Amino acid sequence: xxxxxxxxxxxxxxxxxxxxxxxxxxxxxxxxxxxxxxxxxxxxxxxxxxxxxxxxxxxxxxxxxxxxxxxxxxxxxxxxxxxxxxxxxxxxxxxxxxxxxxxxxxxxxxxxxxxxxxxxxxxxxxxxxxxxxxxxxxxxxxxxxxxxxxxxxxxxxxxxxxxxxxxxxxxxxxxxxxxxxxxxxxxxxxxxxxxxxxxxxxxxxxxxxxxxxxxxxxxxxxxxxxxxxxxxxxxxxxxxxxxxxxxxxxxxxxxxxxxxxxxxxxxxxxxxxxxxxxxxxxxxxxxxxxxxxxxxxxxxxxxxxxxxxxxxxxxxxxxxxxxxxxxxxxxxxxxxxxxxxxxxxxxxxxxxxxxxxxxxxxxxxxxxxxxxxxxxxxxxxxxxxxxxxxxxxxxxxxxxxxxxxxxxxxxxxxxxxxxxxxxxxxxxxxxxxxxxxxxxxxxxxxxxxxxxxxxxxxxxxxxxxxxxxxxxxxxxxxxxxxxxxxxxxxxxxxxxxxxxxxxxxxxxxxxxxxxxxxxxxxxxxxxxxxxxxxxxxxxxxxxxxxxxxxxxxxxxxxxxxxxxxxxxxxxxxxxxxxxxxxxxxxxxxxxxxxxxxxxxxxxxxxxxxxxxxxxxxxxxxxxxxxxxxxxxxxxxxxxxxxxxxxxxxxxxxxxxxxxxxxxxxxxxxxxxxxxxxxxxxxxxxxxxxxxxxxxxxxxxxxxxxxxxxxxxxxxxxxxxxxxxxxxxxxxxxxxxxxxxxxxxxxxxxxxxxxxxxxxxxxxxxxxxxxxxxxxxxxxxxxxxxxxxxxxxxxxxxxxxxxxxxxxxxxxxxxxxxxxxxxxxxxxxxxxxxxxxxxxxxxxx
Length: 844
Known about the structure:
Layout: H1 9-16, E1 19-21, E2 31-33, E3 44-47, H2 60-65, E4 68-74, E5 88-92, H3 95-108, E6 114-118, H4 123-134, E7 140-142, H5 150-157, E8 166-170, H6 178-186, E9 190-193, H7 201-204, H8 207-215, E10 225-229, E11 243-248, E12 258-265, E13 270-276, E14 280-286, H9 292-306, H10 311-319, E15 329-332, E16 338-342, H11 348-362, E17 367-372, H12 381-395, E18 399-403, H13 405-417, E19 424-427, H14 433-440, E20 446-450, H15 457-466, E21 472-476, H16 477-491, E22 496-500, H17 502-507, H18 510-520, E23 524-527, H19 530-538, E24 545-547, H20 555-560, E25 564-567, H21 570-585, E26 592-598, H22 612-621, E27 625-632, H23 643-662, E28 669-671, H24 675-680, E29 688-691, H25 702-707, E30 715-727, E31 732-733, E32 739-740, E33 745-750, E34 767-770, E35 773-776, E36 786-789, E37 801-808, E38 811-813, H26 815-821, H27 826-831, E39 838-842
Parallel strand pairs: 2-3, 3-4, 4-5, 6-8, 6-9, 7-8, 9-10, 10-11, 11-12, 16-20, 17-18, 17-20, 18-19, 21-39, 22-23, 22-29, 23-24, 24-25, 25-26, 26-27, 27-28
Antiparallel strand pairs: 1-5, 12-13, 13-14, 15-16, 15-39, 21-30, 30-33, 30-37, 31-32, 33-36, 34-35, 34-37, 37-38
Helix pairs in contact: 1-3, 3-5, 3-6, 4-9, 4-10, 5-6, 11-12, 12-13, 16-18
């Protein structure tokens, strides 16, 4: 370490090769952020990045108002420092390049071991396992969350501080050429490759290219150690850098330097014996399910050993490791209160991020923050909690509940910053939290739980979660974001994305999904009926909301809530005009845009191409109504056997557009493609595409799936075992005795039935996952429960999780598999999941 580096404005300007404009060049920067949407820490730096659909320079002034002390901006943006008095500016040619130079320069100031981790899967798990072990003897810094992108790695490196003895940095890529830039920043002294797969097939292509790109992280490794999986064919033809040590979790004969000699499933993880390169065989315990995690554990053990960690410290750290539940779990109770559970860990950075999420998802609803102590901050603890209190006030939280002595500092600081004293509640411990929540919370509230794990606040949050019905649909918002951007890369920046969130977003809660996609940059939302658009407006969503089935009787709602209807009927246009006239008199609305719907062969609703001109002229003559777009529905874009018909539909649509243009009528936004069309027919993309099911990583057909690699499944349907019984040969199960045991069997009753959306066709042969084992449904599916044969599951017990569709223990059941059994489609299954099934939204 070189003279305890300090992240001052002067240092930042020097390392980033920027021009500093400020009054205090010695000002120490506490934090660096590229997101202007959240609250800023005091003395933080905002970096104005630009992308295909955003320009951070538009938000520099907003960042200053939220607390940022300085901003790094591009010279070409011509930001005037006089226009933002008091804000320091660092002027650079390119903000992303400057951020990466800054990160590289900052990392170079630290002469400590830096572990670089890459691979297609398991990077975060290996990082956290290794950090858990090393923390037994060292002060360890690790990348926060899954910060492994071009921006995330840079931000991660800038978190290293003089007190850290070892740094662990996670690096991920999705395109060729990206890893070379990360290597210049990270410069690892020890490397780990977890595995090589097709997690980013769209950008990296085949396994060989993926392997070659991943290895580039370690080009400067020199004599350092590279740890990699023994059985990984894509690595075989490559000349690997460094001193190479392989690992294996296969208990069969292995030549790996680090391998598992024997393992036993303990029911809640694994007991195993591992051969360490030069230290012999040692026993370990891993309290995490999933055999694939044994491979992750061996990678982490190998790295810990090479860093000189004592074996007992390794054992203790690995035994204490837990896979934290996915963070930011969101669910809404039957009383209408939404809980955001992020109480698994807390530090100043994640607390600020969680407060931003709270405000984003609360919208116009009341926001309640329940904050506990942030631990492991040492001498900085009181100052960090005081700073968080100021951010609570700046964020605009409506009610703050402080649990614990340090959290009391948060509340006091928030009041000092301007939060009304009556908006703050202090509690000594979590024991009194339940009664406070009963007194304070009302329907519609959005509530955040945030604290370090040892405080126990997560147990209070989990009690509330467990009070919800056992059948749950988990929606991974990060996967939805990933899928949106995968599509965006496929269709290009010039084409907009209309997110179809009709039918409760295909059964997944249109509000949460819409809020997430609105933040990512969708062009518009689409719903089936006006009533589905109203709650989105009430949540504060302002982007266009299209209504695919506009009824004349609902014209008042469409106009009042500024919705955009698809039209093909003169009666609807006349009804809209009448509502506009009424509201104009009260100065509530000036007009409304509509989208013309063309029937090109679906023969459901819409105007025939030869009817489009006269109808368009009618709309033009109608006061207050204007043409904002034109669209059609593709009938069979997911079926290659019908591609000729699909191309005919596209041709008919183009003819309709040409008809309007020849009459000097602007058709507005043109959109044709659904999920299938967006992936399979580039000529159908026009100005925007409409995507629904694809948002969740589910393909409408195998043909679409083949065209859309790299998407992530965003949905998991689960429940719990509520009873277990032993059956003798000849005993039957369920209504009408449709299944009879042919031998002694063990039967579990699970809390899901056809009223929840577990279809009756799953009777006698459908399967679920319990303990990573496929278990057949026996007997007839009932309204509220079902029965499954768990004879082959060791140690199954009441309360165990049951996966209807999703993954568990390395195995999975897809919604398409279930649909195929019932000779139906995934759309129907998703839309039939009952409101009784709690939707839980998760974000990393």
